[in-house]
């Protein structure tokens, strides 16, 4: 059965005069069962007034088109949600009716509600991390700063160690927040100039003597803020795992499909470590949290895309993001 469950019907004076055969797959009715019936009787009571009003209001407006979200009863008596596009073809001698092209979006609606609940839980988690962990951490840091002013010798070394560990906790909190938010499914997008976002991210990261090269322009629909975060984590990964001197990081369009890549001229990531690279907490850097590439993967997947890791042309790490893996407009329709 097609992912897009659609059917056509024609209506004249509220009576169904034609139904496409696909209605049987979508609603469970044979076309002959619906032909001659009053269309409003199959519409949810709460939606009937709006549909009836519009059908009567535009009955003399030949060529009028409109789009509706309406609940329709199927053969099992259950209500399914449809997006219906209506076109007034009453003056067309071959039709003489209002034609409705209806697409079943019931699963899309359920998926959307599920994702909204998931995003709410992630927001709650982020709030707990931000408030309940940061407050005692700030108190500890403040007290330790006061203590540091009155110690010396071995005690000073101990205070330095504690300060480093508290700093690491702060890093973990920041990355945990970013990880929680990065997994939220992208529902609102803008047209994004990827090169401009990459340059901004580069300026936000301490990249030392490394250099950025931006190649072919890529414009796509995405969440600019999260794409900025994605690039920042990719750039940090390159700089922190390579000697920044003479390191070049390149961002450009993929040659054979719609997407982009980020590639560095460093030492690369061994093949046996690539599957683990995106795991939460996995790191080869003693001071790292291991969340950076996990955040990258979450942001990519939240857009409905896919990310892969391979060798770059110069032996460094190459991250490829295929933006047509799951089209953006379909990502909330998957059951």
TrEMBL record:
<dbReference type="InterPro" id="IPR003661">
    <property type="entry name" value="HisK_dim/P_dom"/>
</dbReference>
<dbReference type="InterPro" id="IPR004358">
    <property type="entry name" value="Sig_transdc_His_kin-like_C"/>
</dbReference>
<dbReference type="InterPro" id="IPR013655">
    <property type="entry name" value="PAS_fold_3"/>
</dbReference>
<dbReference type="InterPro" id="IPR036890">
    <property type="entry name" value="HATPase_C_sf"/>
</dbReference>
<keyword id="KW-0597">Phosphoprotein</keyword>
<dbReference type="InterPro" id="IPR000014">
    <property type="entry name" value="PAS"/>
</dbReference>
<keyword id="KW-0902">Two-component regulatory system</keyword>
<feature type="domain" description="Histidine kinase">
    <location>
        <begin position="128"/>
        <end position="327"/>
    </location>
</feature>
<feature type="domain" description="PAS">
    <location>
        <begin position="13"/>
        <end position="62"/>
    </location>
</feature>
<dbReference type="InterPro" id="IPR036097">
    <property type="entry name" value="HisK_dim/P_sf"/>
</dbReference>
<dbReference type="InterPro" id="IPR003594">
    <property type="entry name" value="HATPase_dom"/>
</dbReference>
<keyword id="KW-0418">Kinase</keyword>
<dbReference type="Pfam" id="PF02518">
    <property type="entry name" value="HATPase_c"/>
</dbReference>
<dbReference type="Pfam" id="PF08447">
    <property type="entry name" value="PAS_3"/>
</dbReference>
<dbReference type="InterPro" id="IPR050736">
    <property type="entry name" value="Sensor_HK_Regulatory"/>
</dbReference>
<protein>
    <recommendedName>
        <fullName>histidine kinase</fullName>
        <ecNumber>2.7.13.3</ecNumber>
    </recommendedName>
</protein>
<keyword id="KW-0808">Transferase</keyword>
<dbReference type="GO" id="GO:0000155">
    <property type="term" value="F:phosphorelay sensor kinase activity"/>
</dbReference>
<dbReference type="InterPro" id="IPR005467">
    <property type="entry name" value="His_kinase_dom"/>
</dbReference>
<dbReference type="Pfam" id="PF00512">
    <property type="entry name" value="HisKA"/>
</dbReference>
<dbReference type="InterPro" id="IPR035965">
    <property type="entry name" value="PAS-like_dom_sf"/>
</dbReference>
């Amino acid at each position: 059965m097609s992912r897009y469950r659609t059917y056509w019907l024609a209506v004249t004076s509220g009576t169904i005069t034609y139904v496409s055969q696909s209605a049987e797959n979508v609603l469970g009715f044979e076309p002959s069962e619906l032909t001659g019936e009053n269309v409003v009787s199959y519409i949810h009571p709460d939606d009937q007034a709006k549909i009836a009003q519009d059908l009567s209001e535009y009955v003399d407006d030949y060529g009028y088109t409109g789009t509706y979200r309406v609940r329709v009863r199927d053969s099992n008596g259950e209500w399914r949600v449809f997006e219906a596009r209506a076109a007034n073809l009453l003056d067309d001698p071959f039709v003489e009716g209002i034609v409705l092209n209806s697409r079943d979006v019931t699963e899309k609606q359920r998926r959307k509600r599920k994702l909204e609940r998931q995003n709410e839980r992630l927001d709650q988690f982020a709030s707990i991390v931000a408030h309940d962990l940061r407050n005692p951490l700030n108190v500890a840091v403040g007290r330790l700063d006061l203590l540091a002013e009155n110690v010396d010798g071995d005690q000073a070394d101990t205070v330095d160690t504690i300060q480093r560990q508290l700093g690491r906790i702060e890093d973990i909190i920041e990355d945990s927040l970013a990880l929680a938010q990065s997994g939220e499914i992208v529902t609102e997008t803008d047209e994004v100039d990827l090169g401009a976002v990459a340059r901004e991210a580069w300026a936000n990261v301490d990249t030392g003597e490394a250099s950025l090269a931006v190649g072919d322009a890529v414009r796509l629909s995405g969440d600019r803020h999260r794409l900025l975060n994605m690039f920042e984590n990719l750039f940090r990964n390159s700089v922190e795992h390579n000697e920044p001197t003479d390191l070049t990081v390149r961002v450009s369009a993929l040659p054979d499909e719609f997407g982009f890549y980020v590639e560095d001229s460093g030492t690369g990531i061994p093949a046996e470590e690539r599957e683990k690279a995106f795991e939460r907490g996995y790191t080869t850097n003693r001071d790292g949290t291991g969340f950076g590439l996990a955040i990258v993967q979450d942001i990519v997947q939240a857009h409905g895309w896919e990310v892969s890791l391979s060798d770059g042309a110069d032996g460094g790490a190459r991250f490829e993001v295929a933006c047509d893996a799951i089209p953006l407009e379909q990502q909330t329709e998957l059951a």
